[in-house]
Specification:
- The protein has 405 residues and is α/β, with parallel strands linked by helices.
- The chain is built from twelve helices and nine strands.
- The chain has a nine-stranded mixed beta sheet with strand order 1-2-4-3-5-6-7-8-9, sandwiched between helices.
Length: 405
């Protein structure tokens, strides 16, 4: 239930939304089968000042409930819009004399008598839709199992991005002592959270046990499916270069989603150390990590590109990136010794170019994962890269290629 059980306000909001859905269903049934009772009921709301203000208070509370519960249901935009509609139509009525509302209600109800069937059907459909949206969320099994996996316990929220015009499922693993401590934690953003969040978020806990890695808030950015009609990683994680295909080119918008939407939202919700934010990506996600490093270096303190692809627009990664305002930025590029031959060779070519390059705005580490493969070595890439990021000195020697750690 998307951690709703830990948020009493969210529970109350969903309860109020459910009651609203039930109210609309009852109103629809009355309008269809007991039209006179429906008319009397509607006219009764503005019959006195007390009922007028009671109605306005209820409308405001319902509007706030829809807005607050929007992130917990599948119809986020619809719930948010309906909530704001209730708020914006109720506030003016609070400022007007209640008798005006009574006269308007009387005229409106009398004028709508001939349309009671349409009103009844509309109310019935809207009420059922609201109830189904809430029930679908409550009955969905996706969020429930995480409550029983302590290594992954934290939070979940759905985020409708205006920048990419698509929703994302955001999974958050919080440190074990998060509720009892006042610490501000580093944040690690995992691209391809659909697969990497359950692997790397849990593994981070073991790295704190065995390697002394600082605890961190782990944020998995997930699409909710692997199907290409939903999962747009190929588009979101690639730049709009001359050799990009029609299914590529969304990296600028995705980076704006991170910088302008998701990162501020995470900072608002959790106690983060904003000076230590890290981006991890694997394969096509690794490409986006490099894209971010070469276009907006200040955005992340640390970046880890695990077995990255270098196309489209490979030349971009051999050109000088913009300068940074910080001197403590770090970029790690890992490459499995048994990665796909084309990607392995591309990584070696890139490493050779940057081996002696001095124009980089970040400290660079290139690591070969001994016997590493393309995808299965992601945990080892994460381990070696995170340890280097947190244990490096402020000034590093020129970048070098390490076999292992």
């Amino acid at each position: 239930m998307a951690q709703i059980t830990n948020d009493m306000t969210a529970l109350l909001a969903l309860l109020l939304v459910s009651l609203t859905g039930g109210y609309l269903v009852v109103l629809g049934v009355l309008a269809l089968f007991r039209p006179r009772q429906a008319q009397s009921f509607l006219l009764g709301f503005a019959s006195s000042a007390r009922l007028h203000y009671l109605e306005m208070v209820i409308r405001l509370l319902v509007g706030l409930a829809f807005i607050h519960s929007a992130e917990y249901v599948v119809s986020t935009a619809a719930f948010t819009g309906f909530g704001w509609l209730l708020l914006l139509t109720s506030l003016p009525l609070l400022l007007l004399p209640w008798q005006w509302h009574r006269r308007f209600a009387t005229q409106a109800v009398n004028a709508c008598r001939r349309y009671l069937v349409l009103i009844g059907v509309s109310a019935l459909v809207l009420g059922v839709a609201i109830l189904l949206a809430v029930l679908k969320n409550i009955s969905a099994p996706a969020g429930a199992p995480l409550s029983f996996l302590p290594a992954l316990q934290g939070d979940y929220f759905k985020f409708d991005s205006a920048e990419v015009a698509r929703p994302f499922h955001i999974y958050v693993r919080l440190p074990a002592d998060y509720d009892s401590a006042t610490t501000r934690y580093p944040v690690v953003y995992l691209l391809d959270g659909d697969s990497l969040f359950p692997i790397l978020a849990a593994n981070h806990l073991f790295l704190t046990y065995d390697e002394g890695l600082p605890e961190a808030i782990i944020v998995g950015i997930a699409y909710g499916a692997f199907d290409s009609s939903i999962n747009k990683r190929s588009y979101d994680f690639s730049a709009p270069t001359a050799d990009a295909s029609a299914e590529q080119g969304g990296a600028p918008a995705f980076q704006r989603f991170l910088a302008l939407e998701l990162m501020p939202e995470v900072a608002r919700r959790y106690r983060i150390d904003s000076s230590k934010q890290i981006l991890f990506g694997q394969s096509r996600g690794g490409y986006f990590v490099l894209y971010s490093a070469f276009t907006q270096p200040d955005l992340f303190w640390g970046r880890i590109a695990s077995n990255p692809t270098f196309e489209p627009g490979a030349a971009m990664f051999f050109s000088a990136p913009p300068s940074a305002t910080r001197s403590d930025l770090g970029l790690v590029v890992t490459s499995g010794a048994r990665d796909w031959p084309k990607l392995r060779q591309a990584a070696l070519n890139w490493q050779q170019h940057w081996q002696t390059e001095t124009r980089a705005p970040w400290q660079l580490r290139v690591i070969t994962i001994d016997k590493g493969t393309h995808a299965a070595s992601s945990p080892e890439s994460y381990r070696q890269a995170m340890l280097w990021l947190f244990n490096r000195t402020e000034v590093e020697a020129p970048p070098r290629n390490d076999k292992g750690q």
